[in-house]
Sequence to fold (881 residues):
Amino acid sequence: AQADLLLRPAAGPGVAAGSLPIDRLLAAVDGDASVTVQDSQLAGVPMSGEVRLHSVGATVQVDGQLTLAGNRLTLQGRGGGAPAADQWHAVLKAADLARLAPLGRLLDELAPGTAAVWPRAGSLDAEVQTHGRWPLMRSDGALQAQALALGGLAVRSASLDWRHGQQVDDALRVQLKAESLRSGTQQIDQLTATIDGTLRAHAIRLLLDSPARPPAWAENLLGPAGTGTRLEAEARGQWQGAIAGAGTASRYSVQGMKLQGGARDAQGGSRPWLAAQGLTGELLVGSTGALQSLQLAPGRVQLPSTALNWRELRWQAAVDGPPGTRPGPGRLDVAAELETIDLARLLARLQPEMGWGGDLTLGGRIEIHSAGRLDADIVLERGAGDLSVTDDLGQTRALGLTDLRLALSAHDGLWQLAQGLAGRRVGSMAGAQVLRTTPERHWPPGNAPLQGVLEARVAELGVWGTWIPPGWRLSGALDTIAQFSGTLAAPQVNGSMRGRGLGVRNVLQGVSLTEGELSLVLEGDNARIGRFDFKGGDGQLTLTGGATLGAQPRATLRLVADHFRVLGRLDRRLVATGQANLALDAERLRLDGAFKVDEGLFDIGRGDAPTLDADVTVTRSAIAASANGSGRGTDSARPATPTPPVLRQAQVDLKIGLGEQLRLRGRGVDTGLRGDLQLSTPGGKLAIIGTVRTQDGRYAAYGQKMEITRGRFIFSGEPDNPRLDVLAIRPNLDVTVGVLVDGMAHNPRVRLYSEPEMAEYDKLSWLVMGRSPDGLGTADTALLQRAAFALLAGDTPGPTDQLLEAIGLTDFSLRQTEGTTRDTIVTLGKQLSRRWYVGYERSVHATTGTWQLIYRIAQRFTLRAQSGAENAVDLIWSWRW
Fold:
């Protein structure tokens, strides 16, 4: 470093001994100085630089540059003399800000918190020129940033350009553009802001695009959210008097403000959710630049389905007290009204599947004054009209509302909440709750004492059935009385709930619970069920027990069923008897008990409820069908059902006995089911252990009615994948042939069976035609065709089986006799029971036919009686070798 300095005596009055102001000091120094730093390091960052100073009188000229890890800052200019003569020019070329990270850690040790705003990555180019001294200073500059990471903020690209003059009425222009800004989970795709005019009076425009979308419930209210959210604003701003930062308080007014926010679409447009025009406001800025007050003139903001009008909206900062004391409280004054809310339309958008309708309107008002203490009145109440609901059967019911009111008030530390609802069909509800706290509290603390009461009477629960899943119906009356005490954080509830004539019904599922009675008592943290029972068919279901609420909730319930009809559908009928105990707390669930099936029928051959076709598309806003021809259905209204969580704290020990009257029918099967099953949860997963056996079973396959001689479904854990062991035999044959099904339910194996073992071709011949394949010819074409029909039909009955079932027959065939002269024989028959069979045969060329009555005495002995073309009684003994 080198310096050439000349110190001159300070001239002029007012210079006291031992005191020299900085401007006088600069005026007393003339000369040149330069500092050069080469091949150095600062906190491990390579550093070099040079600064040259030239001082003449009070003016200092600076020319220097600093390079840190390849990032260069250049500064040129002069200052210190007359303010109008100040002139500076700075250029920054920072292509690799990541290499400056060690400096951020160093600065954070010297000044904690600096690292939060120190750049971590990216590049930054900037150029700034200034003339004069603040506040009489003009400047212009430009800034470009790429992939900038600054503290918790990340910016893909940004640019800032500005220009302003020395005087408040000189031209001013500021333009900011930024893309892809991220801070935590928040993101802005595009931000554009411009200021045009002068420093005293200018126009402001703002455009902000974000991929943020409202939550699902709000999207139903606001409409489709598109590709994100767009906010647009513009206004005219003007300083009244001095400019902020000039050492005195300043007023800034905003006029003609236009505000619009809504959903952004793929074409770049937007659909507004809120809109306001012509807003006027004023800000008061202190001498330090801090905001002291904000006030908006009376205005209006359009919201979905309503609008907010305010007469007064004002905020004032806290007033500083004497040194050493805390600032006084700020002040907020709000006086506003909600315009008429079309509640029916609002609910229809929130819950489109509920079938809301009607002309019910609501109105409201808001009064809030906070200055040392809080005074507030918020009311939302019915204006006129009624609500109606349309169920899934197309039936529309009016609720008959005559009163709807919700009110909140806070005065002198007394918080009061009141509710009121009345309707011809929905019943009535009235309540009031009170909280006490100190007047300066803006919200009651958790230990605020609570007192209150709530009474509700529902004359017909069927009206409220719209809130439960489609297809279900409620009935009966319900009365509730509750008294509140304790604190806001730990409320105590005492009261009762009583229900009469309760019913739950779902015709589609065959559920019908009737004549229900409920008696529930609430005693602080305890709830006790005195009576809760339903009738189902000729039986009854009873639930007893209680629960403890509060910090450690737990419940103990006992369920008893006595010949209770669980399902009563034509093809699904189940009557059960048994009991179960349920213990539930915050950490675990325990269920044990035993049930027995008194009677049951499951016809798996019948279809369930009608379902949408595969090419139907479901959307959130409405249910619509579009024939897209893709063969795949899409459902955007509901996300894919998540995998059920593992019940690690569930302990289940439930025994189920199938009884003696449970039957399974359909898909060619008609059999009774017997056995015992045990449900448990080892490792938190549901498991079933036990064996289900068939009894008196029949199985239709290959066009034949076979008997299930052995049928077992062995459960060893997985509920949906038991091991199969089923053998179905065709009866009344000289040999034993049939179908054997074994393996696991997910991968079953079906094959032909015979005893003794024979070739597959022989098995099929005996199974389909009832005789050996020896001498097969064209006379068996019809029977082979019938077998082909059965094979092609799969799980559904074939055309031949459907026709025979319709006319009440079990057999129909056409065959030709062998020999030189062939004759066609038509055979009709019906299996009356396992051993009895009646049939009729007739040649197409004969005038009469033959009736046959056959009784199967044993496997090889048959008694046959004939009448018609031939009259005979035969005893047939079959012997094979």
Remarks:
- Confidence is low (pLDDT under 50) at residues 10-20, 607-612, 618-646, 788-796.
